[in-house]
Design goal:
- This protein has 7 helices and 7 strands, in the order H-E-E-E-H-E-H-H-E-H-H-E-H-E.
- It is of the alpha/beta class.
- It has a 5-stranded parallel beta sheet, with helices on both faces. A two-stranded antiparallel ribbon has the order 1-2.
- The N terminus is likely disordered.
């Protein structure tokens, strides 16, 4: 009987979590908002990528500074990433470690690199609306 009650409470908790949109977690009467970091990488400068943007994004995910970490490849960064094997390797490692990486399709298409970015495991899609949703939502957004 005790196990049945525990299972019922767990199921109820999951249902309530999903019903609330899954954006917060309640533990022992306290509620924690899910923290989200969105980084827009626009720079075509390799030093900015390696020594600032990638380092921060990767560590934000690995060290759990944020619950969700997403990086958007936008503009000149798309061209740089398509041409640089070292940066490609770094991005693949970030993806393996749980960073969600997306690229702006309009930008990638303008440089002719959409297929290359897709081949790296990056979701290539139009990003105007998703970025606007981040900015209007509960995301912390940085641009490099």
């Amino acid at each position: 009987m005790k196990r049945l009650v525990i299972i019922a409470v767990c199921i109820l908790g999951i249902v309530l979590f999903l019903k609330m949109g899954g954006d917060s977690v309640s533990v022992a009467g306290t509620e924690k908002q899910v923290s989200r970091l969105g980084v827009v990488w626009t720079s075509g400068d390799k030093d900015v990528a390696e020594r600032v943007c990638f380092m921060y994004v990767h560590n934000a995910k690995k060290a759990k500074w944020f619950d969700e970490v997403e990086m958007v490849v936008w503009g000149p960064s798309a061209k740089l990433l398509s041409e640089d094997a070292a940066l490609q390797k770094y991005v693949k490692k970030m993806i393996d470690d749980g960073v969600k990486v997306k690229a702006c399709k309009a930008c990638a298409d303008s440089y002719g690199v959409s297929k290359i970015l897709s081949g790296l495991g990056i979701e290539v899609k139009y990003m105007g609306k998703p970025l606007s949703d981040m900015l209007n939502g509960d995301w912390k957004v940085l641009t490099f």
